[in-house]
Fold:
Amino acid sequence: TASFGALLRCFPCQRLCGGGAVPPGALPAAAPPPRRHLPPRTFRSYLPRSHRTYSCVHCRAHLARHEELISKSFQGSHGRAYLFNSVVNVGCGPAEQRLLLTGLHSVADIFCQSCKTTLGWKYEQAFESSQKYKEGKFIIEMSHMVKENGWD
Structure:
C-alpha cells in the first residue's frame, strides 16, 4: 500500500529501505550552509587618503579633515571636544536651545550616518554677539574620534 510505504520511507535517503543502515555514498552530499553576504560599508563621502583625517571610532566612517579644525579647546557633553568648520558623513537632529558654558545657543545633535552614534552637535544660532563665530560649526567629542592617515 502506498500510504504504508510512505511511513517506512527512510528520512536520510528518501528511499524505501526499511530503516536499515544506509550504505556509504547513498546519501546526497550536504549542501554548504548559505553564506551571508553583508553589504560593504559605504559612506556618503570619503576624504582623501593623503590628508590627515578624523574618523568615527566606532565604525571608521570619515568625519573631518585636519584642515577643517578650528579649535581643540572645547567641552562636549561628556568630555573634551574639537570644533570643526565642516564635517562629512553625519546626520543632524532637530535644533533645540541649550544653556552651555559660553551662554545660550541653539544646537542640533549630530550623529554618525553609518553607525548612528551621537558624536556632538552643530551650532545653529548663538544668542551672544561674542559667540556668533560658532554658528554653522560642529563639535565632535574626542571620545568618538580616531586620527587616521599620516599622523606620524
Notes: The mean pLDDT is 80. The longest helix spans residues 2-7. The beta strands are 53-56, 62-65, 69-76, 79-84, 90-100, 103-112, 118-126, 138-141, 145-148.
